[in-house]
Predict the structure of Receptor activity-modifying protein 3.
Amino acid sequence: VHGLMMLGFTGASLQTNLCNESLMLEKLPACGKSFEEMMKKVDSKKWCNLTEFITYYDNFTQCTEREANNASCFWPNPLAEGFITGIHKQFFSNCTSEKVHWEDPPDEILITLILIPVTLTCAMITLVVWCSKRSDIL
C-alpha cells in the first residue's frame, strides 16, 4: 500500500523545467521595444500620468510575463525585474513625486478643532454623571 501511495504521489507531482534565463533575456527586449514604440504615441510630458499609457504598460507587463513563462521561468524573477527596472529608468526617471510640505492650519482653526472634542467630551461626562444621580426618574 505504501509503495502504491508513493507511486501515486510521485506520478501526480509536476515535472519542473529549469528556467532558461538566456532565452528569457533574449526575448524580453522585444517587449521593451514594443513598449517603446507604443510610448512614442504619448507626449513625453504626459509620461508621468499613468492614465495616458496604462494600456501600453499592461501590454508590456503581460509580454514580460509571457516571455518568462515561455522560458520556463517564474514571473516576476530577479532578471525580469532588472529588465523592467531598466524600462522604468528609461521612461519614468523624471516622475519622482514631490514631497508634500505639511503646515499647521491657522491658529483660529486649530484651536477650534481642539476645543470642540474637548467640550463635547466634558458635556458627555457631565450628562452621564447627572443621569446616574437621577436614576429614580429614568
About this structure: The domain at 21-93 is CATH 1.10.150.510 (DNA polymerase; domain 1). Helices lie at 2-12, 21-39, 54-70, 78-92, 107-133. The chain has a mean pLDDT of 85.
